[in-house]
Amino acid sequence: MHSLSNLDDFELMTLLKADQELAFAEIFRRFDSLLYIYAYKKLQNTEEAKDVVQEVFVQLWNARKDFVLKTTLPGYLYKSVLNKILNIIARKQSETKYIASLQHAINSDMVSADFLIREKDITALIEKEIAALPPKMREVFELRKNQYLSNKEIALQLNISEQTVETHMKRALKILRNKLGVLIYLCYLL
Asked: Which domain of life does the UniProt lineage start with (predicted)?
């Protein structure tokens, strides 16, 4: 068999249909870099471009037995890459629209019953964890969060030092963050 690099695309495709892996390797060698550059220019993302090209070659290999080339091999490969790129763009646009609609729902005045139930459950969980704090720490925490008192005001009211107030707050916040998780902690306590 003569060198595969001397074969034209039609001859390579004929060998590929006959399960010749070397023919596939030659097609890959000829078009991989060109297809990657094409995909990268459209997507501006290295990983996505690599994935698209890899998917096209995997698709070509998997369909090799039944593959009928109705155009040129480069035309088929570029069209396949373009179709995958268009799918990615459409998916991204769909995700963007979905995220925007979620953001709109969050920002709107309409509050669903489901949200109210979840908020009530989360509030109950937070209150339970606050109640489980040591008494003095809980008292300091509640004065800060419920009455919005400063460290100095809390220290005067409880007859303790400002440093002790600060220590109680730091420890309370650490305990609550560990018990409730960062998301709930950030949303409801800060």
From this structure: Bacteria
* Alpha-carbon span 138 to 181, nearest angstrom: 19
Q: Which amino acid is at 85?
A: I
Q: Smallest Cα–Cα separation from 169: which of 157, 151, 146?
A: 151
Give Rg (Cα) of the chain.
32
Q: How far is CA 35 from CA 42, 73, 96, in A?
A: 11, 12, 27
Listed in sequence order, the residues at least 6 apart from 89 whose beta carbon sits closer than 8 Å to its beta carbon are none
Q: Tokens for 4? A: 């595969």
Tokens of 122: 């989360």
Residue 23 near residue 87 (C-beta atoms within 8 A): no
Q: What spatial distance separates the first Cα and last Cα of the chain, rounded to whole Å? A: 74
Residue 24: pLDDT band with limits 50, 70, 90: very high
pLDDT of 71: 83
Instruction: Report which secondary-structure segment, H or E, holds 163.
Output: helix 162-180
Q: What is the enclosing helix (H) or strand (E) of 6?
A: none
Q: What is the spatial distance between Cα 69 and Cα 133, in angstroms, rounded to a whole number?
A: 72
pLDDT tier for residue 116 given thresholds of 50, 70 and 90: low
What's the one-letter identity of residue 135?
P
As to burial, measured by CB atoms within 10 angstroms (0-12 exposed, 13-18 middle, 19+ buried), residue 18 is exposed
